[in-house]
Design goal:
This protein has helices at 2-6, 14-23, 35-57, 65-71, 80-111, 113-121, 126-137, 168-172, 207-222; strands spanning 142-146, 151-153, 156-158, 163-167, 225-230, 235-236, 245-247, 250-254. The protein is α+β, with helices and mostly antiparallel strands and 256 residues long. Helix 7 crosses helix 9. It starts with a helix and ends with a strand. The mean pLDDT is 92.
Length: 256
């Protein structure tokens, strides 16, 4: 999907997932051996996309993200660092979140087999289930900001320069909003009240695409799969930012 959105050479699409993985990886994550290695690989990423950027400049008529950025008045002349920041945001936002929500969904339905039976009995629940999986999984755990001025927020003093972490995971498990918030309920009436995509002007611009990807995946799975069986413990990413998985051993049983 990322390769399509960027009109990226399809035979080299594996580079996109690698760049996504290393951009948020720490040295103890098992993904990189040193920060210097990460910097080298990200430099390769930036050089590659700068080459694509320069080529698209000649005639930016395509529907890919780079061509659209080149056609936009506010984005066509971005400083180099701003371009790289937006690039990594698109790569990570288009890969880690959806990929880990897929894995998290498989894990959730394995932990709550009654919900999987409910889905098999009524496949129309897929659309609502996708929202509930995104709430339950919360692929991006938090986002941090720096206070620009002193603020008194509901009795809490936040001073200029303080680092403020917005825990999406906490909001998505708020018992005042969600009944039995730690449980997966694929028919939860207010599943779409989750905060995984942010809120207001800071809402994820790819939210509808992510929902569509997950919906299509589960619709296709439900037409072909009778059961999934977890055959080992998930290996989780060592990350405070991305709630994800390095592996999840599963046996998939096909419908006959």
């Amino acid at each position: 999907m990322l390769a399509t959105l960027f009109d990226f050479p399809f035979e080299e699409r594996h580079r996109l997932t690698r760049w996504s993985d290393i951009s948020t990886a720490s040295v103890d994550s098992g993904i990189i051996e040193s920060l210097e290695q990460r910097d080298r690989e990200l430099d390769e990423c930036f050089d590659y996309f700068m080459s694509l950027w320069e080529k698209r400049k000649v005639n930016p008529v395509g529907n890919d993200l780079l061509s659209m950025l080149l056609r936009g008045k506010a984005t066509r002349d971005m400083p180099r660092q701003e371009f790289f920041g937006n690039l990594l945001l698109l790569i990570v936002g288009g890969n880690d979140t959806t990929r880990n929500s897929i894995t998290g969904g498989v894990l959730a339905l394995s932990q709550y087999p009654g919900e999987f039976e409910k889905l098999k009995a009524d496949p129309s629940l897929v659309r609502n289930m996708v929202a509930e999986i995104i709430r339950w999984q919360t692929p991006v755990t938090y986002m941090r900001r720096t206070a620009l001025e002193d603020v008194d927020f509901e009795g809490h003093k936040i001073r200029e320069g303080d680092k403020v972490a917005m825990w999406y995971a906490s909001g998505n498990r708020d018992p005042e909003v969600f009944e039995s918030p730690h449980e997966l309920r694929i028919d939860r009436e207010n599943a779409r009240a989750h905060l995984s995509f942010g809120f207001g002007i800071h809402r994820c611009m790819g939210n509808r695409l992510a929902e569509m990807q997950l919906r299509v995946l589960w619709e296709e799975l439900m037409s072909r799969v009778s059961a999934t069986e977890l055959v080992g413990e998930p290996v989780r990413n060592r990350s405070t930012l991305i709630k994800g998985y390095q592996s999840l051993p599963v046996v998939i049983k096909r419908k006959r």
